[in-house]
Amino acid sequence: MNRLLQCLLAVFFCSPAIAAEPLPSWNDSPSRKAIVDFVERVANQDSPDHVAASQRIATFDNDGTLWSEQPVYFQLSFAIDRVKSMASENPQWISTEPFKSAIAGDIQGVMASGKEGLVQIFAASHANMTADEFSDSVRHWLETAKHPQTGKRYHEMVYQPMLELLEYLRENDFKTFIVSGGGVDFMRVFAEQTYGIPPEQVVGSSVAAKFEMVEGVPTIVKLAQNPFVDDKEGKPVAIYQHIGRRPLLAGGNSDGDLQMLQYTTIPRDQADTTPRLGLIVHHTDAEREWAYDRESHIGKLNEAWSQANQRGWVVVDMKRDWKQIHPVRK
Amino acid sequence: MNRLLQCLLAVFFCSPAIAAEPLPSWNDSPSRKAIVDFVERVANQDSPDHVAASQRIATFDNDGTLWSEQPVYFQLSFAIDRVKSMASENPQWISTEPFKSAIAGDIQGVMASGKEGLVQIFAASHANMTADEFSDSVRHWLETAKHPQTGKRYHEMVYQPMLELLEYLRENDFKTFIVSGGGVDFMRVFAEQTYGIPPEQVVGSSVAAKFEMVEGVPTIVKLAQNPFVDDKEGKPVAIYQHIGRRPLLAGGNSDGDLQMLQYTTIPRDQADTTPRLGLIVHHTDAEREWAYDRESHIGKLNEAWSQANQRGWVVVDMKRDWKQIHPVRK
């Protein structure tokens, strides 16, 4: 845009109004206070702890942190739904586990076939197809599938207070990233529209891919090889490889985020005095969502919770701290 | 910053002056014209080919595109210099190739030990150390090493016209990335300060890494395993994995960039009419830099040059198109 026009617009649209109160869906709790204090401390020009905008990296887990993950990770629901829809092209599946259980919608049966079974379910629904075929299948699923308990579309099962947190951080010149055990190609289909997080700021699990010219058209093909799982110790490694900067703020909800929280917040040495924030979303609300932590198979929160006090991590109590859980459908 | 203050500053500092002419070190050539026409076409709000800012991804090769690469890739010079500096701690190297040649500064001798020799040189200088140890060693080398022919620091051997191109693109809300065969951790040490490209926008070759707590401090350790080489077909794959968006503009200088240029510019189908630009930096200036293309071992430009016309790629003739090559030392 022409610089003169930009300036005129800046003059016309600037108003003396103060910015709206941030985090409107957060109750006035210690969690909210800790977040706002931290952001003001690092973003305020006059603060002795001011941090340059280029260093304001915020990384968030996805499952259980930005959207729900019960009764199972939504991406597993996607994989199983895809297997069901592909069953007619694969008649041999009807008599072979884990496909037999998947087609019957029997999640317990699928889980009973262990890691090897899950690998097969994921290979069938995530690999040996082009990048576009895969993302189209995810897009279609998001538009049509419904959560079995709430009846909502899966992308409606996000956390309104976390959407506000992402927005608040970006208003203060943070760059918001996802660092998740979920599939990077799965999340990239909706992360920009749903979270305001563009594809280049999504970090996740992946499989290998290859480039080929198919009838003169450059094509990326996803392969069932070299899986990288962006979980636990894998998260700081993925942050190092994909971002190349240590986060200033990290948010998660389970022990899969322990190392990311440690990597973000534990000082390197005595000279490392930059303020950093670790945040854990604790599922305490059996009425409005699900309550789970130490005993859960999905999103188990045990060690990270035990270390939270000592490490100074903010533990968000969903029941106490959030006025609402999911966005209201418009 | 307080919104009111921001607005007042916008009013005070806005002047009716027109923005300075872009690309001042570029001669008025077909290359410059093609670049400016393209950027105006996609960035101008009134253009029928306007592209949303979120899609304006520009990816650039590094060696031979943003900085020089003769007589050998600068990262190889780094690796050899590191081996020399580590020689006293490794007395067995003095009688073993390729280390013997490296210590003697004999690049031909190093190359003679082939791929296996290079792997050993790189393992010794790039792996089995912490991330911080590695980046410190790169930083120190950039501050002290001099190019054997020009006597300049290596980060002074960048291309002033390309710095201006990166700046011009960013002024038009492009996000500038590096997609290079060079090491991502090597390039991240200087890319932000030298090119204005932050670490999270550097994509390159890598090795595996692991996370561990060392005396209670979270530490990333680089390992001599699982190398990923971000070259040729690897570049579109890396773009898919790390960026997740197809570039709008891609620039390179050699056949290592062929697939990235194809991936960026060849339409997917008839409906794919978004304008995209491919750019090749052709080394034609034996006086001010080096002249090489089809016959070169370093930065060979053959097939990509042959396809350039048919594909509509802009071929920048360094001798004809650039008023100066490297920045003038201040």
Automatic annotation (TrEMBL), chains A, B:
Cofactor dependency: Mg(2+)
Alphabetical keyword list: Amino-acid biosynthesis, Hydrolase, Magnesium, Metal-binding, Serine biosynthesis, Signal
EC number: 3.1.3.3
Protein name in the entry: phosphoserine phosphatase
GO molecular function, one term: L-phosphoserine phosphatase activity
Key word Magnesium present: yes
Signal peptide per UniProt: 1-19
Major enzyme class: hydrolase
This protein's GO CC annotations: cytoplasm
Coiled coil: none
Catalyzed reaction equations: O-phospho-L-serine + H2O = L-serine + phosphate; O-phospho-D-serine + H2O = D-serine + phosphate
Pathway(s) where this gene product acts: Amino-acid biosynthesis; L-serine biosynthesis; L-serine from 3-phospho-D-glycerate: step 3/3
